[in-house]
């Protein structure tokens, strides 16, 4: 079994910064892609950023130039540095990790609230 623990959410004023972390632990041989999704009230969950095992990244157009995703493979951890935050960035942020163990499975974090005030 694999556990994901997220941290780093909170309340910040527009223009501020936050850094999210998601650490995976348990029966892990390796990790493929890692990513962050968010869900605003009344909206569908959407991809914010993703990073492959080789370090290639992909961002939603709305966060390009403001957010940076990175990973520490030794710690099985993915990060999301969020700068120049806007009220429309408000939502619950979930990490998503593809783990290679006895099989390949996708796991979700418990979610962390990010609230950006205007």
Explain what you see.
- The protein is mainly beta and 118 residues long.
- The chain is built from no helices and eleven strands.
- It has strands at residues 2-7, 10-13, 18-26, 30-39, 46-51, 57-59, 67-72, 77-82, 91-100, 104-108, 112-117.
- A hairpin with a 3-residue loop joins strand 9 and strand 10.
- The chain is globular, with a radius of gyration of 14 Å.
Keywords:
118 residues; mainly beta; seven-stranded mixed β-sheet; four-stranded antiparallel β-sheet; 0% helix
Strand portion: over 45%
Separate helix tally: 0
Number of strands: 11
Helix/strand order, N-terminal first: EEEEEEEEEEE
List the uncertain runs. Answer: none
Give the oligomeric state.
single chain
Approximately how much helix is present in the residues?
under 10%
How far apart, in Å, are the first and last alpha carbons? 41 Å
Q: Which structural class do you get from the secondary structure elements?
A: mainly beta
Report on the biggest sheet: 7 strands, mixed
Question: Quick check: average pLDDT?
Answer: 97
The 3D shape can be described as: globular
Q: Radius of gyration, Cα only, in angstroms?
A: 14 Å
Write the layout of secondary structure elements.
Blueprint: E1 2-7, E2 10-13, E3 18-26, E4 30-39, E5 46-51, E6 57-59, E7 67-72, E8 77-82, E9 91-100, E10 104-108, E11 112-117
Short description:
The protein has 118 residues and is an all-beta fold.
């Amino acid at each position: 079994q694999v556990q994901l623990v997220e941290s780093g959410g909170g309340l910040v004023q527009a223009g501020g910064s936050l850094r999210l972390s998601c650490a995976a632990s348990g029966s892990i041989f390796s990790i493929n892609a890692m990513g962050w999704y968010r869900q605003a009230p009344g909206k569908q969950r959407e991809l914010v950023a993703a990073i492959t095992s080789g370090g290639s990244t992909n961002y939603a157009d709305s966060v390009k130039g403001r957010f940076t995703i990175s990973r520490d493979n030794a710690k099985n951890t993915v990060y999301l540095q969020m700068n120049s935050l806007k009220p429309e960035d408000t939502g619950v942020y979930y990490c998503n990790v593809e783990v290679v163990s006895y099989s390949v499975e996708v796991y979700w974090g418990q979610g962390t609230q990010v609230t950006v005030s205007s």
